[in-house]
Amino acid sequence: MKETFLVKHAVGGRAFIDTGKNPIPYTWKQVEDQWIFTMQIEKAENIAELLKWKNELNVFIFQDIENEPTKKLWFYVGDDSVHYAEETGELTIVAKSQIVYIPEQFSAQL
Asked: What is the rounded CA–CA span in Å between residue 59 and residue 95?
């Protein structure tokens, strides 16, 4: 399985992190009713703009499995859910809700 991790401003907005274009180390896990995403960002200036919009972010995971349609997981980030530890270069994002969908299932029928 190939997985792409995205952090975007709003739904159709600018992508701040896209591991499909610029790979970075990240992990994610579900803990009770929330999802915790952790990534390494070496320089604080690389995420300064992301932090300006930290209350308006969405996280996406695209999972590509051979011979299956792409599955998209869309996570909503709440207020005070984005934190950057400059001393370790670790960015943490906590999401409290998720939608899983297959884009092919939502294509328009003419």
From this structure: 8
Cα distance between residue 4 and residue 8, in whole Å: 13
10-residue mean pLDDT profile of the chain (110 residues): values are 93 88 95 96 82 92 92 91 93 94 67
- The CA distances from residue 65 to 2, 60, 87, 108, in Å, are 7, 16, 36, 23
| Cα–Cα dist 29/51, whole Å | 22
* Number of neighbours of residue 105 by Cβ within 10 angstroms: 7
Q: Is 45 helix (H, G, I), strand (E, B) or coil?
A: helix
Q: How far apart are CA 54 and CA 33, in angstroms?
A: 20
Look up the pTM and report it: 0.88
Q: Reduced to 3 states, what is the DSSP secondary structure of residue 19?
A: coil
